[in-house]
Amino acid sequence: MNGEYTDEALIKKVLDGDAAAMKYLYDCHVGCLTAVVSRYIHDDDDLKDVLQEAFVKVFTSMRSFQYRGKGSLRAWMTKIAVNEALDFLHSRKATEAMEMAEIDDCCEEEPLDEPDVGNVPIEAVYEMIRHLPPGYRSVFNLYVFEGKSHKEIAEMLGIKENTSASQYHRAKALLATNIKEYLTTNKNKRNGRTMAK
After folding, report:
1. Phi, psi of 78 (to 5 degrees)
2. Which of 6, 93, 104, 115 is the most buried (most CB within 10 A)?
3. Which domains does the chain have, with CATH numbers?
């Protein structure tokens, strides 16, 4: 197998049971799907289990895939990975914490003071997302990365729509706090090194 294969040709070979094609598909997409699953699953061992289940589902469901142009295969695989991650969280009852104090419909959240993330490495931001409480993390990822509406998220997670909005806002607030702490800590470290010179 090599990079000259189109997604359509690759899919055909996978459906024909070509082991080399299966390995190629895995190698091409494992990095992306690992990043996707890691946004939902904090524990590395659990992440590996979910990722394995996602690839099993990809290979066993390949005949149901409808090719819709470049990028459609990865999008389909990403959807499977997200669903597997959410199923895992449901099985662990990790989303029970989502039904915490909800925002009353007549109340509005305080506007967030958005932190400057320009000086924060993207890896650090992803790590902060991974460490959000499970309920916050699921809603934040579905809203920001998967582009789901709060109505869609509510249906997917079995929660109320305003609970989804509440969890998203609280996730953003917690991330903002963590980012500010990161910037302050690193500023102090830089200042300390400057004074030591």
Report:
1. -65, -40
2. 115
3. 7-92 (1.10.1740.10), 98-196 (1.10.10.10)
